Amino acid sequence: MCILRGANVQIISVKVNKINIEPYEADGIVYHADTCLPLIDAFNRKKIKFKALARHTYPGDRLDENTMGLNSIGYWDANEPQDWGLDWHRNEGIEFHFLESGTMPYSQENKEVLLTPNHLTITRPWEAHKVGNPYVGMGEILLGYYRFRRAKASSRMGLARLDHINTE
What we know:
This protein is mainly β. It is about 5% helix and about 40% strand. The strands form four sheets. It has a six-stranded mixed β-sheet, with no helix packed on it. The protein has a four-stranded antiparallel β-sheet with strand order 6-11-8-9. A two-stranded antiparallel ribbon has the order 1-2. It is globular, with a radius of gyration of 18 Å. It starts with about 25 loop residues before the first strand and ends in a 6-residue tail after the last strand. Residues about 1-20 and about 150-168 have low confidence and may be disordered.
């Protein structure tokens, strides 16, 4: 038996919001949403500062049901040369990156660019992209993923098609 005297005790119930992210299939290949493992590893090795709010497989403090549709939003700050990158991957929602400082190698489909401050990238649902070549650059980057209900990529001309933009 535990007796607590003079202590403020707060019991918090955490509701875990689990939603399976449906894989995307194109040309007989099944794609799964990225898990950001190299980013998590870099943070654990103290290579970067990182802070995010997230759900599903994305790293960060957990979002609640008041932010449905938003899957992740946050930043990382790499203030020293890096030894990791986010190789070719896909995400289930619209992803954006905004480079606040530094430089960042970035590739989307068949285009490679070197991002500099004030560059904004937007990646369509399930579009192949990578950050780093092979390593990410030094700088501060803001990132986010937003998933519309039933966002699907269109195989025609590589364009994204949003079947339904109501996020209720």
